């Protein structure tokens, strides 16, 4: 039996001029375009087998119609799609990186942390797309003004090792009064593991001897977060 292609069969020249991505963008602005149409503009041109729109559909389909998954796609994953060569993959990757940097730029404007949402907004732009686990700390003064952020460790998809000595040294070097812990769960699961709970308690207990407060531990994953402080899992 002949296999059918799940990708819709359409070509840009078959569309009415007002529905063609570039013309549509010129007439109505970028916000009027779907994700597939925006991808088609970045892809630029198709080939004998598929139009730029079809390739855009295939790229978005490969990302399970999810922008977060799309932003995690590597160059090798993009070029594994038939019709997406290295040049097209680089353009797509560069556009996604610009989006990430815009979010990071917005996060850097947060200079004072007043709640868990502030901490999440600070960390999310650069942590959400990691496919591996990383552990970071946010250092604050007595007025909750951000002194800086520091990466403590990098691990695999299931966890990372955290050394309390490194965390406390970084805090003492910056004369920080409080620390917010943060790490991501690449799986998207927001619930803390036993290891997460244990390291939080260990760090909280150790910080008391240095007159430093562990004010929260944020877990980031799948467009959301878990706050130890909000759930009453941190005491200081």
Structure description:
The chain is an alpha+beta fold and 236 residues long. The protein folds into two domains: 12-104; 112-227, Cytidine Deaminase, domain 2, CATH 3.40.140. It is built from nine helices and five strands; from the N terminus they run αααααααββαβαββ. The protein has a five-stranded mixed β-sheet, sandwiched between helices. The longest helix has 23 residues, at 86-108. The N and C termini lie far apart (67 Å).
Which tags fit this structure?
single chain; 236 residues; alpha+beta; Cytidine Deaminase, domain 2; 2 domains; 5-stranded mixed sheet; 5 strands; 42% helix; disordered N terminus
Strand numbers in spatial order across the main sheet:
2-1-3-4-5
CATH class term of the largest domain: Alpha Beta
CATH topology of the largest domain: Cytidine Deaminase, domain 2
Number of helices: 9
- The shape, in one word, is elongated
Which superfamily, in CATH terms, is the homologous superfamily of the largest domain?
Answer: Cytidine Deaminase, domain 2
Q: How many strands, what sense, and barrel or not for the largest sheet?
A: 5 strands, mixed
Provide the low-confidence segments as ranges: 1-7
SSE class: alpha+beta
**Rounded radius of gyration (Å):** 22 Å
Helix fraction, binned, reads 40-55%
Number of strands: 5
From N to C, what is the helix and strand string? Answer: HHHHHHHEEHEHEE
Q: If classified by CATH, what would the architecture of the largest domain be?
A: 3-Layer(aba) Sandwich
